[in-house]
Design goal:
The structure is a single chain. The chain is α/β, with parallel strands linked by helices. The chain has one domain: 3-Layer(aba) Sandwich (Rossmann fold). It contains nine helices and eight strands. The protein has helices spanning 13-24, 31-44, 52-61, 85-95, 98-112, 124-128, 142-152, 159-174, 197-212; strands at 2-6, 27-30, 64-67, 70-73, 76-77, 117-121, 134-139, 188-191. Helix 2 (31-44) crosses helix 5 (98-112) and helix 7 packs across helix 8 (159-174). ATP binds at residues 7-15.
Amino acid sequence: MVVAIDGPAGTGKSTIARFIAERSELYYVNSGNLYRAVALLALRQDIDPQHHEHVLQCAREHTIDFSAGKTLLDGQEADDELRTDEVDACVAQISRIPEVRDIVNAVLRKIASHTGIVVEGRDMTTVVFPDAEVKIFLDATIDARADRRFQQGTSRLSLEEIRQSIAERDHIDRTKPVGALVQSDDAVYLDTSDLTIQEVCARVMEIIQRHTY
């Protein structure tokens, strides 16, 4: 079984997908972390994200995987390094590279071929798993999303800078030549702007139950 969740940055996809996976006894996969892993590799090697061939070569020279809820780079856990302002600044550009998307999508499909998963990202319901049993599109206003990121306390940016960063990320995500963020026709739309995480999780569980029983 595949539960695919799409939506823009800051809608709570990761938190909700992790909770749903635990409740449903499914494997949780954060597709965005795989792109962040490629971004981290590029940063470590001082590669300009605009130089697509160099980024792609870097990605091909290393092993990127997901195991036991952890993102692995060459077999080593890398999650603690993936949520920095530096990675945030270049991950959207790197995720635009079609060949990088092919690498990440292959990892995701390999995982799903062995076990049931809850996976979240930008094109999970449209490109990677178009036949997923459950498809959900999470959304929220840009102000709500910026405030959530600011309250996390993991960024050195001001609230307005975070808002601008999210707006730029939205533009890149929605205009990608491959894997652009769009709502699948058969995905259930859920606006999380004024909902708590608990309320969103409850509604998502209801959606899953309606689609699977």
